[in-house]
Amino acid sequence: MQVRIVFCVHEPRAAAVSSEQQLNSETIMPSPRRLSRSDGRFHMAASGTSSSNTLSRNSANHITKRFLQTMSYSVAVWTLLVVALALPPSACGLPEGGPGADYPVGRFPFLMPKVVPYKPELYLCTPVKVDYTKSYYIVGFEPNATMATAHHMLLYGCGQPGSESAVWNCGEMAGGSEESGSPCGSGASSQIIYAWARDAPKLELPEGVGFKVGKDSPIQYIVLQVHYAHIDKFKDGTTYDDSGIFIHYTTKPLSKQAGVILLGTAGYIPPMATEHMDTLCEIQEEKVIHPFAYRTHTHSLGRMVSGYRIRKDGAGADQWTLLGKRDPLTPQMFYPVESRDPIRKSDRLAARCTMESNRTRITKIGATNEDEMCNFYLMYYVENDEPLQMKYCFSNGPPLFRWSNREAELNHIPDYESSHL
């Protein structure tokens, strides 16, 4: 099942919904559905398309249809509770403004639809389709999760989702009998627009900056991915999860379009060793990007993650400008960059993860907590332009790639500074 978000604006009216009211959403299936919110929980709600089938305000407190949609996996089953909630037409609207903004900002709850994760290290994805007739700008992200349950959450902007199901396994640990797939469809555009871990707080983008979605944007679907770390409280089957993100958005056109580039590596960490995992790429597009935030991510072996912009001076010397560095075991939120100097064509981006292993085995890059990851996210905006087509910058990692490799053609490498606070 695919769900379409419909963003729309109405003039204020008597008995209008509060600032907490969410946006109507409809599926693109022959029998449309919408997303709504009841008692603080996110539900998948059935509704008709004709006015004769539209639920009136008087029935708003009555449940008109309830059923269970079950999704069976090889080991267990989780359920999606489907409830129809009556809302007046004015429920599809924007509150009057948002923090620090001079334009209306809406709040959409993009949450897991009452799933019951049945095994550790499970990755689940759920999609929404953005109304393609208009452009919308995402200006903030408000997480609804705790690290006691979720290892991390990602929001992907996709041309097509990786599955037509309401929820699917989108991790590398899926079994052969489970429906699984990537967050975004094969061959479709794919980009990360937000990431959360370790109880990071909400993120508000700078004034006038937003991620453009819908209409002529390559982002036609938004996919929420949740990596479940701990599932003890779900074992009895009576507790469900609605981890996710409240998306803050506006319909006002913004001249500063946001983008994210993810720097990461493959490779492995030897036993009982300190290892540097390096990545490097060159900006090859005729664009000027303005960095404003960065985020680091590793699993338990990470001690430091740093990111740089590299630019050669007239003498051929590399000038390393620090974008940010951080202990990745602190809250993994987006932090302000150390330098907001613009990044241009022929500049290079570099990132390093310093890993310390006291394990007696090799640790590879992978999806579980027994594996590792080395990620540096750089969030930026372009003014009166489109974001970079390059969304990802990955290297082979150690032992195949290091900054010191001859083919990297780097000099003045800040080995100590990039590995220590």
Q: How does this structure look, described?
A:
It comes from Anopheles farauti. Keywords: Copper, Disulfide bond, Glycoprotein, Metal-binding, Monooxygenase, Oxidoreductase, Signal. This is peptidylglycine monooxygenase. This protein is 0% helix and 41% strand. With 421 residues, the chain is mainly β. It folds into 2 domains: 158 residues, Jelly Rolls; 162 residues, Jelly Rolls (Sandwich), CATH 2.60.120.230. The strands form 6 sheets. Strands 7, 9, 13, 14, 16, 17, 20, 23, 26 and 27 form a 10-stranded mixed sheet that branches. Strand 5 and strand 6 form a beta hairpin. It is globular. It starts with a strand and ends in a 26-residue tail after the last strand. The N terminus is likely disordered.
Put simply, the count of helices is 0
* Biggest sheet layout: 10 strands, mixed
Number of strands: 27
CATH topology of the largest domain, by name, is Jelly Rolls
Counted up, domains total 2
Which shape, going by the Cα principal axes?
globular
Q: Which CATH first-tier class of the largest domain would you pick? A: Mainly Beta
Mean pLDDT: 77
Please trace the helix and strand order, writing H or E for each element: EEEEEEEEEEEEEEEEEEEEEEEEEEE
Structural class: mainly beta
- Poorly predicted regions are 1-97, 173-177
**What percent of residues are in strands?**
35-45%
Q: First CA to last CA: what distance?
A: 47 Å
Task: State the CATH architecture of the largest domain.
Answer: Sandwich
Radius of gyration: 22 Å
